[in-house]
Amino acid sequence: MSGCVTSWSNITMTSSDHGNDPLPPRVVEALRCSVCGALLMGVDRTLRCEEGHSFDLARQGYVNLLHARIPAGTADTAPMVAARADFLAAGAYRPLAEELARVCAESEGLVIDAGAGTGYYLAHILDAAPAATGLALDVSAVALRRAARAHPRLGAAVWNLWERWPLGDEVASTVVNVFAPRNGPEFHRVLRPGGLLAVASPAPDHLRELGDLVLAVADRKEERLDGTLGEYFARTSRTAVRRTTVLPPDQVRQAVAMGPAGHHLDKGGRRERLAAISEAQEVTVSFTISTYRRL
Ligand SMILES: C[S@@+](CC[C@H](N)C(=O)[O-])C[C@H]1O[C@@H](n2cnc3c(N)ncnc32)[C@H](O)[C@@H]1O
Ligand SMILES: [Zn+2]
Fold first, then answer.
1. Residue 40 lies in a domain
2. Domain with 124 in it
3. Whole-prediction pTM value?
4. pLDDT tens, 240-266?
5. Minimum-distance ligand 1 atom for the alpha carbon of 75
6. From the CA of 48, how far away is ligand 2's center (Å)?
7. Overall number of domains in the chain
8. Which of 69, 101, 140, 295 is most buried, judged by most C-beta within 10 A?
9. Each residue of 224-246: pLDDT tens digit?
């Protein structure tokens, strides 16, 4: 719960660095105390409920609402997050960001990115949706340090998506989920009626040239996705985003290290095989974006 408060005042931030901003008011209004479920009030750099539970905003701009331990191997680690940030900055997944921004461009109010990582996709969406405010939820505090700085209209909160989310009912116009855990009942509860759910997942041929360096995409993922969401949502579109691109060796290494295989680099000689890559490689980048309306 309440962590130690370090001094904020002597930290120099550039004008494009939003890490020291308070959480956007719309995010504070939507959040609930993760201990008792009450409304939260922002006072200085602390969120507090009327029962006296309090949560400090970290120096890097996110709030940690967790109070239970998370199993090892759940949150993306610092090396995984660094690999993801560098990889995404180089632009190979930009077509996915642009397509997500297009489908979410009409969003107003609160857009929640469930499993937001570094906030790359949410920042693109907020650029396209000027009336929206973003909330990045992720269990990785390391990732949210970056997300908190990704956009001026973005707030970030550490949370385990498999637990009931520390948010009120129907607080969001849009929920986005990109390669992250999908909690259908919570997507439904936090979305307002008619709200938009946009889910991006890797297609079976995504990065197929990298073989077992990456972990295989489970077959029939889309059908299973519709099955799990069917009770709560009606699918409104499904778009394939697919291209081939040439990745230099460093980006091949980052693509592997930032994904689920990043938790297993010491298995199957992955680390050594990655280190030995010396040439650029053509790869297939292949995603599916599915959109749904909340029933
Ligand atoms: C493959 S990454 C995708 C990150 C981001 N959406 C992107 O595409 O750049 C999966 C993310 O889900 C987060 N995650 C995994 N399990 C989680 C959980 N139970 N609750 C919240 N976040 C979780 C990880 O920390 C990681 O940031
Ligand atoms: Zn409380």
1. no
2. 71-294
3. 0.92
4. 999 999 999 999 999 999 999 999 999
5. 25
6. 7
7. 1
8. 140
9. 887 889 889 999 999 999 999 99
